[in-house]
Amino acid sequence: MGRGLQVGGIVVALIVSAPFGLVGAVYYHISHPKPSVLPLPSPEIELGSTDGQALLASSVHVDNDLLTPDFETQHKATWCGVASSVMVLRAKGQDLTQEGFFTPEATAIRPWWRTTFTGMPLSALGAMLETHGVKAEIHYSESETVDSFRAELARNLADPADFLIVNYDRPAVGESGDGHLSPIGAFAADKDMALLLDVSSYKYPPHWVPVPALFDATNTPDSESGHSRGWVVVR
């Protein structure tokens, strides 16, 4: 699941059984993620660094050029999927906010409260995106390989007509947190690195991650779906 905060079933139980004050405290914590920029683990590279800019110059980065003007920091600690979706939809010409992502059609797939307290798995992300008039193709990493992921990056990042949102486990790449979702902005084939436009910018800036490590982080269990994590291609 993409969450950005370790909540899941614990918070669902709180909603059912806890006093309103405790639920309100949890909601406040989710709604006010504490800015705390963390150091990137090696060998990740910050986009804004000299090395990061050199990688960008040598990469396939059509999507970065389209996504960066509409970069969104997630409004809530669990809204990484929401912010990622809004970035992609805005890059495709839609005038949309994170709050506005929750149309009646989208909330019929996954209610606002459930997304806010537990995040969303890939299946919900894809279905909610499609209520906004795009095609969302889900890839579970359990059925993929690092080579197929690499091939998707090379194809997708060169095509302005589609975008890629990746769902990965932060600790698997040495980062702090839990399951997370963010768009990919570029692919540097010569260094085999992908650019994560991390929507939790209060924790990590946009940064480059080795493709094998990122794929392994997508090929981890999702607690809700019973599948692995993976990625969504948005057309």
Account of the protein in words:
The protein has 10 helices and 7 strands. It is of the alpha+beta class and 235 residues long. The chain has a single domain (8-234), classed as Phytochelatin synthase, N-terminal domain (Cathepsin B, Chain A), CATH 3.90.70.30. A 7-stranded antiparallel sheet has the order 1-6-5-4-3-7-2, with helices on both faces. Residues 4-17 have low confidence and may be disordered.
Provide keyphrases for this structure.
235 residues, alpha+beta, Cathepsin B, Chain A, 10 helices
Précis, in short:
The protein is an alpha+beta fold.
Question: How can the largest sheet be summarized?
Answer: 7 strands, antiparallel
CATH C-level class: Alpha Beta
Strand content: 15-25%
- What average pLDDT do the residues reach? 92
CATH architecture: Alpha-Beta Complex
Class computed from helices, strands and strand pairing = alpha+beta
Helix content: 25-40%
Cα distance spanning the termini: 22 Å
* Global outline: globular
DSSP helical segment count: 10
The structural domain count equals 1
* CATH homologous superfamily heading: Phytochelatin synthase, N-terminal domain
Q: Which runs of at least 5 residues are low in confidence (pLDDT < 50)? A: 4-17
Oligomer: single chain
Give me the secondary-structure topology.
Blueprint lengths: L7 H10 L2 H12 L13 E2 L3 H9 L3 H6 L12 H12 L12 H6 L2 H7 L3 H9 L5 E5 L5 H11 L6 E7 L9 E10 L4 E4 L10 E4 H8 L11 E5 L1
Antiparallel strand pairs: 1-6, 2-7, 3-4, 3-7, 4-5, 5-6
